[in-house]
Amino acid sequence: MAQLQVKKRRPHRAEPARPANSEYQVRFPEVVLGLVEKRMGTSRKMFLTSLACSRGFCVDDPCSEKVTHVVSEGNSGDEVVEWLKKNGRPPTQAVGDGPALLDLSWFTESMGTGRPVKIEPRHRLRVTAPAEPLEEKGQVPPYICQRRTPLLHLNSTLTDALETMAEEAKFCGSEVRSLAFSRAASVLKSLPWRVNRVQQLHTVPCIGEHSRRIIQEVLEDGTSAELDKVRQSERYRTMKLFTKIFGVGVRRASQWYQEGLRTLADLQLHQIKLNKEQQAGLLHYEDLNTPVELWQAEAISQVVRNTVEQILPGATVTLTGGFRRGKPCGHDVDLLITHPSEGQEVGLLCKVISVLDSQGFLLYHSVHRNSFLSLEDQELRVSASAGTMDRFERCLSIFHLGDPAGSNQGGPGAQKLGSSAVSGASSLWKAVRVDLVVTPYSQYAFALLGWTGSRNFERDLRRFSKHEKKMSLNNHGLYHLEQKIFLPAASEEEIFQHLGLAYILPEERNA
Ligand code: UTP
Ligand code: MG
What we know:
single chain; alpha/beta; Rossmann fold; six-stranded mixed beta sheet; 15 strands; 38% helix; 13% strand; binds magnesium ion
């Protein structure tokens, strides 16, 4: 009983489907065809129906539950699913349930051979899985500082891919593109569910077209051609190699690449002029690019703490950066120094450095004076446009981890500190990047928030402050741009309160 016209929401008949013309015998009772009229048109559908019946096939309304093979011409799988739904076919539980959705090629081949041919993948119409109902998963807020981003998350394959793309964009000097990839990676890190299909990201913010494309390719093929090309490119690899030298930024690395340099040895071969920082960076390249473990960071913190307390009792040393966010290892050690009596901290850093240096702990150091007080304009002092660099007094150093007296500071015979080494082993050592930052007590909470990171988290916190609250936030303070007042805070919690944000623990700022 062929249905030559599809009637919407027609009740399904109980009668088994049979060839339209009773003069034809049913030869394949297990196969019931349904022809989708959309794009096929009524007259062609009638013609094909007659043809199928003449070959002994049953044909029925494609929306009937009896139909086992839905045949369509010129429609995508998704379009067919949508059309069936609109025309009253009950939805299936999952992709793959229900009738086979087939291209006309299967029909033509079957008519040609006079029997239903085996369904090959090429006959099937591709259907994308429906997006999972996001309502159940909750909406994702647009700013990173409104989200909780744990260290361990469920989408690391995707975030690794996006972060590589972000790095590559940065190497090309495209900050905007780099930021777009970083934001997409950040939002995926905050999702408490694994992304399996790109459609699930329908209402997730911060995922642009390009990121979406990379995500889709990685999900469907396990990798992305564009990503593979980046990873294999000579420029990307060389830029990565050079920017991992302490003191070398994207501009310098790019210049060396343009000049034809490709390896660290090339720098020496071509007698490239390096500043002191870069020389130290090159000398300790391997160590500085071996992750610093938590126990190593704590050991260094303790050495600094002992020295600080010896010089200024009551002063505190706090391990910040990635370690405060719960990371088990990092690329450096970020230490924040303060004293509860404001003003006591002035002059402290020089003395601390002098002691550490005399004990052989500093393989390299450079000191930057506090330039905050020299800014006369109030608003400039809290200008968010200053980026992440703040104006605290600080020392950028390469620290000698291990007893300096027990080694020859990196000479040819010196034993190196392996990851399995026990803390305190006197004959082993490792060069570690350490930042010492001194902050007045009244600015400590802001400095702690800023130095805890992550960089993405901090960037969005500032963006949120400015655009949503008309406030300017940096590592020194929070300023209300309309009321023209500073909003003091003694803790990170108070800063979140000023901004009307729920408090996010350091461990949840791993954006
Ligand atoms: P890091 O570069 O050390 O990042 O800066 P990290 O998160 O600790 O990463 P690993 O674990 O070392 O690899 C730490 C934080 O300090 C801030 C950055 O924004 C970052 O969030 N920072 C850095 C400043 O606020 N000012 C600066 O001048 C430098
Ligand atoms: Mg760090």
